[in-house]
Amino acid sequence: MQPRRRARGLAIQILYEIDCAGHEPEAVMATRQSITELPEAAARFAEELVRGVLANKDKMDQLITQYAPEWPVDQMAIIDRNVLRIAIFELAIGASTPVKVAINEAVELAKLYGSESSARFVNGVLGSVADRLDEIEMKFGASRMRP
């Protein structure tokens, strides 16, 4: 498995524990990173994802609510909402991951960690987000480098 995919997997595990058990982010990151072997760059990427999601969670949850109005964020499966948060962070805030890659990676995380319907749900929401990416980036003050 590629290091960045493994980093995303680590990030989803960290966010799941924080979201589910309410543990302190710093402690969860330290514990999970100590038991997960990743190259240094991948470990930094995982930490960037976690910190970025935590710092922008409210804005991202508003987007999720906008693009998945039938599914209240607080009632959504913990894995699904955190996969969406990671992908939205990569798409709209970090803005360094190509759109197709961010969506594909999110779908793969949903398949690996979520329920039978998670991948389809994540793909649908992120497809809608990608269609409005320019507008969404403006909300976050980010800008994707475009050719």
Polypeptide structure, described:
It is a single chain. With about 150 residues, this protein is mainly alpha-helical. It has a single domain (about 5-140), classed as NusB-like (N-utilizing Substance Protein B Homolog, Chain A). The protein has helices at about 5-20, 25-35, 40-65, 80-95, 100-115, 120-130, 135-140. Helix 1 (about 5-20) crosses helix 4, helix 3 (about 40-65) crosses helix 4 (about 80-95) and helix 4 (about 80-95) runs parallel beside helix 6. The model has no long low-confidence stretch (mean pLDDT about 90).
Descriptive labels:
147 residues, N-utilizing Substance Protein B Homolog, Chain A, 76% helix, globular
Quick one: overall form?
globular
Q: Tell me the span between the first and last alpha carbons.
A: 30 Å
Q: What's the mean pLDDT score?
A: 90
Q: Strand tally, please?
A: 0
User: How large a portion of the residues is in β-strands, by DSSP E?
Assistant: under 5%
Query: Which class do the helix and strand fractions yield?
Result: mainly alpha
Reading off the top of the CATH hierarchy, the class is best stated as: Mainly Alpha
> What is the N-to-C succession of helices and strands?
HHHHHHH
Estimate nothing, just give the exact number of structural domains. Answer: 1
- Tally the helices: what do you get? 7
Helix content: over 70%
CATH fourth-tier homologous superfamily: NusB-like
Largest sheet descriptor: none
How much is the radius of gyration in Å? 14 Å
Low-confidence stretches: none
Structure at a glance:
76% of the residues lie in helices and 0% in strands. The chain is an all-alpha fold.
